[in-house]
Specification:
With about 90 residues, the protein is an all-alpha fold. The chain contains four helices and no strands. It has one domain (about 5-80). The longest helix is centred in the C-terminal third of the chain and has 15 residues, at about 70-80.
């Protein structure tokens, strides 16, 4: 979605629809091209932890951003929100 178009969206009306009423049948399949056009939201709070991540995954994120740890966090955050596991900020 283009940022300039979000000003025209009635977010209160969108937020009023219960998630169980969402109809995902017409939703497009997420593609690699979509990820190229997405905006990364920076996290507002973090906690330092130790985690094991495949070397190839780390190399991918390092190759695509000097802020690779923040990018990894943003991807995990988006995944959690998409699966209803996290409250929207």
């Amino acid at each position: 979605m283009n940022k300039k178009n979000t000003n025209k969206i009635n977010w209160a009306k969108v937020d009023a629809v219960p998630e169980e009423n969402y109809d995902y049948d017409d939703a497009p399949e997420v593609t690699a091209e979509m990820f190229k056009n997405m905006t990364v939201l920076m996290p507002d709070d973090t906690k330092k932890i130790n985690i094991r991540i495949k070397q190839s995954t780390i190399e991918f994120f390092k190759k695509n951003s000097k802020h690779y740890q923040t990018l990894i966090n943003s991807v995990l955050d988006a995944y959690a929100e998409a699966h209803g596991k996290k409250a929207v900020h």
